[in-house]
Design a protein that fits this description.
The chain has nine helices and twelve strands. It is globular. The chain starts with a helix and ends with a helix.
């Protein structure tokens, strides 16, 4: 028995010496951390924690899918980026359209312009044979006249003002840009706002110039995340002009994706060729210097600031030219 005890003490002595070394303590701590990490990284199959969202961390070059949000996502470098409204049914409408079963109110005037047709310059004939649709020249307009306002226009089913005297009670709460515009009572903040519209292969840009289809109080769809309130015309949620139709090769009843964009994010194109709307300061800014031209070294700080702002807008314009499929993958 005494011999056995001496043998055990002799064997334990080197082990005690080893455990007293700093390197042994470090290796022991590292092994414990790795063991704990494996326990969290590889839970038992089927295990889950109720109420805890699943988080996926990308391990390759492919980015994680973006999270859908009903609120605008704001970036310090690109400005406000608003969420997409997906798979929205469109209908065609045009300036000068007479009242009918599908269009209960004539489009001689809009919700915000009592002389819409006159200010536009005439009847925006939707007949393809009476229109110019030329991608090379950027001409998308009626043949009979050159429009004085932007031929790329749309209608959405919300009006922010009541009889031109006051804003609707929810307007200041639901319109994302309302507060920074500081509008006078009854002055719309919706007219001339820009939209990006995507048809599955290309985007175009248009301005909000009228209210519809069918209703003018559907803020939960226009600024929220609900589907369009109306069930007419296939639950249509966006009226588009003939120019938008021709550029995107659409027809009534088709579906598109759309979102609001800031004026500074609108790239040059056919939609900036004629008129850009008035009254809201929402027209695309023009470059302060020629493309590729740098300000002189002795330029004042304001000129240099404007030049940097111009470069930023060019970058944003290139970003917004990317199709929705690229933005989602």
């Amino acid at each position: 028995m005494l011999a056995s005890r001496k043998r055990c003490e002799a064997m334990a002595h080197p082990m005690l010496l080893l455990m007293s070394q700093p390197i042994f303590c470090l290796l022991l701590m590292l092994s414990l951390v790795l063991a704990a990490g494996d326990g969290y990284a590889q839970p038992a199959a089927g295990a889950s924690q109720a109420g805890v969202p699943r988080v996926l961390v990308p391990t390759g070059s492919r980015p994680a899918a973006p999270v859908e949000s009903a609120r605008p996502v704001v970036s310090a470098s690109t400005g406000a980026l608003y969420p997409w409204r997906l798979h929205v049914t469109i209908t065609l409408f045009w300036i000068g359209e007479q009242a009918s079963d599908r269009n209960p109110v004539a489009n001689l005037k809009s919700s915000w312009d009592g002389n819409w047709m006159a200010n536009y310059g005439g009847y925006d004939d939707p007949e393809p044979a009476k229109r110019i649709a030329n991608f090379a020249s950027g001409e998308f307009r009626p043949k009979d006249f050159v429009p004085k306002l932007n031929p790329f226009y749309v209608a959405l089913p919300y009006n922010d003002v009541v009889s031109g005297r006051q804003h609707k009670t929810e307007a200041s709460r639901v319109i994302p840009w309302f507060a920074r515009m500081h509008p006078e009572p009854g002055v719309t903040v919706c007219k001339d706002r820009w939209l990006q519209i995507y048809n599955g292969s290309r985007s175009c840009y248009a301005q909000w110039e009228d209210c519809g289809p069918w209703v003018t109080d559907d803020w939960e769809y226009v600024f929220g995340s609900k589907p369009p309130q109306t069930t007419k015309n296939g639950s249509a949620g966006l009226d588009i002009s003939p120019a938008v139709r021709d550029y995107l090769s659409l027809e009534s009843g088709k579906k598109v994706h759309w979102r609001f964009v800031e004026a500074a994010q609108v790239p040059n194109g056919p939609w900036t060729k004629y008129g850009t709307g008035t009254g809201t300061g929402n027209a695309p800014p023009q470059p302060v210097l020629a493309v590729g031209q740098r300000p002189p070294d002795n330029a004042d700080l304001e000129t240099q600031r404007r030049y940097m702002e111009y470069l930023r807008k060019l970058r944003d314009a290139e970003y917004l030219k990317r199709p929705l499929s690229e933005l989602q993958h």
